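**User:** You know discrete backbone vocabularies at least as well as I do. Would you mind producing a protein record, from residues through to fold? Write it directly below this note and I will take it from there.

**Assistant:**
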Amino acid sequence: MNQILNPKILTDMMVSKPEPDHALGPVTDDWQAAEVVLRTVREKSKSTTGLTEATYRGHLAKLRWYCENVARVTPSRWSAQDVARFSDFLENLPANALACTGTKKGHRHWTPFKVPPSRSSQSDIKRFVHALFTAWHRTGYIRINPMALMGAPRARKVNVRRSIPLDLYDLILKTIESAPKMKFADHQKAARDRFIFEALRGLGLRCSELAHARMSAFYQLTIPKTGKHYWMFHVSSETAKGGKERSIPVPQAVWEAFTLYRCTFGLSKYPAAGDNMRLLLSSRTNRLEPENTEVKRTLEYWFSKFWCEITTRHGVYTIVKGRLAATAEHLRKLGDDFGAEQLEAASPHWLRHTFGKASLLSGQNVRAIASALGHSSLETTMRYTEQDALDLIADVERAVPGTLAWEDTSSEAKSRRTEPNAQFEW
């Protein structure tokens, strides 16, 4: 028979139990103690986007909801058994832990869990909780770290196979061009979405770096010896992960897609220096405030309106996944289930992987690729592009050519997708 705990005991378990004379200052409960830790994270972060803090706050919300609605034990009272129960909760998330569709924070059916967390997400949450307990232990807020025996879960590894084959990538662009365009807004979205795909693959950007960029991120760099003017894309320390700013040479395909996109939105072909408009625009417009003097050509074109802006990585993610799904649907009509499954599983970050691999195969130096991707460690880039495996293939081919198993499917795939009966039908 399960023991029924006294309500007073349950209430006591929800009262924080910090150690006396801790270094976190005047905090009244565990959640205020967590805020002190998050403030330190914000102050130490080199990036001003706040993405790291926002991610940690999401993990903290999940921990708090679990403590208040499931475990009924506040974190400072946790034991190793409580840690194990939390881990089991994440692995086997009950149905009542998922938020009802459309519920907002504050509603009694709201929870921070939108979907059951994947293995990598579970690892991220547990690593955050481990870091929180470690910080509390070091500052004397708790006497014993309940996760000391477990240790910090491993960080997720880069899946180097997550990239989009170039023939499928070209098909995505063709899908964007061939989609029906009943309104002018459809033409605007097509031009913008093509630019997004070209920028993610051609510049190796992260979603957040693209979403937070301004039009002025594009600038010209002159080579003194030749006098040539090259277009560059600047990822500022405010938008770059870890505050690692960098400048990337702009491929011709990216530049052409960018200028077409700007013209489709009624802007000048070239961005002006100091143009503070967001890089990604929505086809929707807002009323322009009288004191706003920006985007004059847009103002003239739309009279008293200006474009809404796409400012979140989720906005970019939604656009990319929508175009990938449309191309996958077309591939299924052609009987190419394998290609469709690849695109359905893909995400915007896959285009960053595609950039890394394509750059390496084109003969670029690994260090140059690492610089373009913003990797602090060359080892990360080598894993990203499977450089060790490629070097091994090259060594074997030089020593004993013709012994490795290989298959050239690119021409076969291309012919299959461009045959007469494989034309786009919308």
